Amino acid sequence: MFCVGLAFCGIASFFPLNLPDIICKFVFIVYNYSMKIRNQKSEIRNNFMSAAMRQAIKAQSHGDVPVGAIIVKDDKIIACGENRVQKNKDITAHAEIVAIRAAAKKMGTKFLDGCDIYITLEPCPMCITAISYARINRVIFAATDAKGGAITGGARVLEDAKNLWKPAVAQDAEYADESAMLLKDFFKKRRMVKE
Q1: Taking the model in full, what pTM does it have?
Q2: Which residues are catalytic?
């Protein structure tokens, strides 16, 4: 029908392709563009989890369990946090809490609307509740925590119907093994020191 309209207007001679060819080329261009954007976003997300892994290593360097967190807004890191429980002698100084406090201070607000958090380990019940109360949009974690995790582990805090804010949740499987190995090595060394 489109080609008929063009022929009627006397413009068809400028368009050597027929309608199906035009549509195929258009779809191909749109698909390639969307894949390019998807790959760029995937690369950015990998950089965020990589930054969280660096925070985990930082935590390990001062004797804390190696867990790191990064808070992102508009594809920019606005806050970092590493476990500081041992360093600060503060049981609430988990990586997520440290990062939330830093982000809230930087943004000048208690709510972190439009923010995502990248964490090297599935958050515990305390941290996922703080994430929920801070109204963080997405939680991306690497390794699961069968015992203390609050998403796939025992507590499953976000499944409660009374929860006020439910962030989207995703696991970054690409970093799951690396994060799990960092934790296993940390606890293995800690057990060796105790023996």
Answers
A1: 0.77
A2: 96
